[in-house]
Amino acid sequence: MATLAVRVVEQIASIHQSIFRAYEENVSSYPIVSVELVAQPEPDHQVEHVANPPFVVFKPTWDYDGEPVAGKHACQADVPESVKSGLIVWNECDFAVQTFLPSLRKQLSSSLPGTRVQWFHAVIAPVFVFRQADAGADVPDPAHSAFHITLPGNGGEYIVDFTIGQYGYGMERWFLSFEEYKAMIRDRLWYICDDEGRGESLQGAFDDKHLSVQRIIRELCDEFDWDTLKQMAESDRIALINEMTSRALCEEHCPMEHAYA
């Protein structure tokens, strides 16, 4: 998979992912006092496309009287790292795709003319899922969004997924070939979306704060010197992105509150 074009895609997508992670680490939620492992529901509680899936359900409980805490620090120390990583991107997949789609398209089309970046929607085969403490017994439908990238010619198809961690998969799987990704989700229901139609279906899905953050992140993507970012060592690049993202967000939203807590 490691052709020059694929490495370019991975680098540009990785920079966008670093911006997203910087945003997530600046988001505050109330402290999570427990993450309970819930018994797997009976088969009649399964959603249509995932009969008898081998996954578990975690139920986080927040302390609404506590002081907001940023990022993974909202979780207790004994919460597994995979669960912490999943919680901070829980319910953020549509927001991530809608926010970064314009910049990812712009940067990839500039570096690799003819590359297509599309909105990918799928029903995931999860390792685990989360549900709200006051939710009923039903497991939430594990519907999910990511980026589908098609390289020109016979360059292949790839999936970029900033929020795969919310379903228990390691974040090392954020960039896979399309075939690898379909195998991971067990080739369940998936389709490539029409941008306009998907955008319309999300009307009203984000509150004013999320829309404001989306605007800030898109402005940051336009302001970055991408040629310089590509040439920087990864650690230096991430440090710069973290600093600029944190500063930009805190100018309007400090501390950031998570919409799903």
Automatic annotation (TrEMBL):
Name of the protein: Uncharacterized protein
Superkingdom per UniProt: Eukaryota
